[in-house]
């Protein structure tokens, strides 16, 4: 009698899910398409940002005038920098510019935003009007203010003649100590719309029931501003301070357009001094060293602001 032994069952190998395979292929094609779209911007960033940074760091160790062959001098540009009196003067001028533009822009921007936050007709139009100088070309704004500052027929001296007895003939752009103040006032006026817009957005984000609760507690208008409005605007204020410091140390175009390519030493900002060394005196190695010191200064100032000022910022809003 024969006994049939059953054959062992074959392990069933699951078929490849064709739909899943098509999904992976579609995902791969989309990923490739995304990288192709990103490639131009990525190459631009690598070449003109990362590459330029590396090149400037290398050039800062050279003595090079763009014409003759360069010569490696190591850190001599950096050691010479701290012995340059104009380096310290330009830093002082830039700090003066910061102390004029940042507090003035923040205080005026907050006050105007509070005034424009009233529920009256025409407030939207006024907000638009205040924003126009910010988007206007800096060359046109500088030309307007140069005319206003003119010592012979400028409107500013004409207006002061009604307040001060005698002939007012102030040389706003020629006087060494007044030139940087005049340029700073122009920048405050031009960038005021940016501060007003940010403060207006901050005011609109404050819930109305905060003010209602303060009024029920008998808080005056000043107390509502001090204990409700201002604390909840500290994130906006902090942002404007940080960006204002960074922008002030990089100011160039308004100084160049207002004072020309050879301003006096008392009106030469740090960034303008970099331009002078690099493109007026063809000292590219020294200009690159100045640029890297500027990078370090801005980095340290930004770190200190985040370390000390950020503690006073109230991010609780809701």
Automatic annotation (TrEMBL):
Domain of life of the organism encoding this protein: Bacteria
All copies of domain ABC transmembrane type-1, residue ranges: 91-305
Entry keyword annotation includes Coiled coil: no
UniProt region (Disordered), positions on chain: 1-26
Chief place of localization: membrane
Pfam families named in the record: BPD_transp_1
Membrane topology label: Multi-pass membrane protein
Key word Iron-sulfur present: no
Keywords in alphabetical order: Cell membrane, Membrane, Transmembrane, Transmembrane helix, Transport
Cell compartments where the protein resides: Cell membrane
InterPro entries found in the cross-reference section: ABC_transporter_permease (IPR051393), MetI-like (IPR000515), MetI-like_sf (IPR035906)
SUPFAM superfamilies xref list: MetI-like
Spans through the membrane: 32-59, 94-116, 128-148, 192-211, 232-252, 284-304
Family under the similarity heading: Belongs to the binding-protein-dependent transport system permease family.
Record PANTHER family: ABC TRANSPORTER PERMEASE PROTEIN, INNER MEMBRANE ABC TRANSPORTER PERMEASE PROTEIN YCJO
Name of the protein in question: Sugar ABC transporter permease
Organism encoding this protein: Conexibacter stalactiti
């Amino acid at each position: 009698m024969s006994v049939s032994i059953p054959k062992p069952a074959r392990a069933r190998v699951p078929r490849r899910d064709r739909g899943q395979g098509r999904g992976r292929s579609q995902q791969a094609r989309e990923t490739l398409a995304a990288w192709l779209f990103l490639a131009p911007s990525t190459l631009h960033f690598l070449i003109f940002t990362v590459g330029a940074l590396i090149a400037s760091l290398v050039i800062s160790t050279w003595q090079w005038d763009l014409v003759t062959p360069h010569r490696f001098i190591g850190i001599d540009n950096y050691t010479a920098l701290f012995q340059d009196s104009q380096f310290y003067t330009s830093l002082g001028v830039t700090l003066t510019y910061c102390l004029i533009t940042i507090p003035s822009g923040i205080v005026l921007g907050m006050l105007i935003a509070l005034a424009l936050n009233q529920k009256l007709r025409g407030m939207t139009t006024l907000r638009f009007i205040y924003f126009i100088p910010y988007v206007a070309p800096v060359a046109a704004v500088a030309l307007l203010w140069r005319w206003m500052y003119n010592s012979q027929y400028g409107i500013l001296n004409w207006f002061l003649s009604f307040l001060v007895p005698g002939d007012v003939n102030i040389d706003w752009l020629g006087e060494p100590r007044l030139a940087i103040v005049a340029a700073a006032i122009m920048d405050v006026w031009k960038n005021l719309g940016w501060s007003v817009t940010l403060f207006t957005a901050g005011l609109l984000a404050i819930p109305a029931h905060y003010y209602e609760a303060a009024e029920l507690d008998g808080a005056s208008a000043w107390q509502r501003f001090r204990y409700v409005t201002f604390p909840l605007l500290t994130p906006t204020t902090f942002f404007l301070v940080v960006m204002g410091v960074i922008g002030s140390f990089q100011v160039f175009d308004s100084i160049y357009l207002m004072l020309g390519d050879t301003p006096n030493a008392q009106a030469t900002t740090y960034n303008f001094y970099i331009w002078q060394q690099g493109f007026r005196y063809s000292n590219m190695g020294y200009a690159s060293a100045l640029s890297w010191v500027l990078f370090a200064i801005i980095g340290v100032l930004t770190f200190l602001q985040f370390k000390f000022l950020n503690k006073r910022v109230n991010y609780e809003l809701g």
